[in-house]
Amino acid sequence: QLQLVESGGGLVQPGGSLRLACVGSGFSLIDEDIGWFRQAPGKEREGVSCLRSADGRTFHKNIVKGRFTISRDNAENTVYLQMNNLEPEDPAVYYCAARANTGARPGEHAVGPNCWWEYALWGQGTQVTVSS
Asked: How far is Cα 40 from Cα 49, in angstroms, rounded to an integer?
């Protein structure tokens, strides 16, 4: 069974950091385009960052640029989202996704034209809370 499992969420103060992990189970993430998304209560899903397997490039939504970094550890079959300087606007459930639907149009809240919007495989999500 193919699965993605996220971990690493939690409660931090504004300005704090968290590192989210997305582990692939039953398949390798090496050749996968990976997307990170978030959804806050009452809000639509929002693309945060993505990693392209073809060239290893990463992309981030403007509001997280300079604060979030996405990386891959092939030995651990894991993709990480390092989140620094967390802000009160960042709390949400964060999801990673794989098996992109490359034919889908990007949604309104996509990262941008370089990241896929629709994926076939999603993790269960991990909660990030930012509060003093």
From this structure: 16
> Rounded to whole angstroms, how far apart are CA atoms 112 and 109?
8
- For 107, other C-beta atoms within 10 Å of its C-beta total 14
CB atoms within 10 A of CB 100: 21
Residues forming a β-bridge with 37: 47, 95
Q: Where do the DSSP E strands lie in the chain?
A: 3-7, 10-12, 18-25, 34-39, 46-51, 58-60, 68-73, 78-83, 92-100, 119-122, 126-130
pLDDT, tens only, 28-51 = 999 999 999 999 999 999 999 999
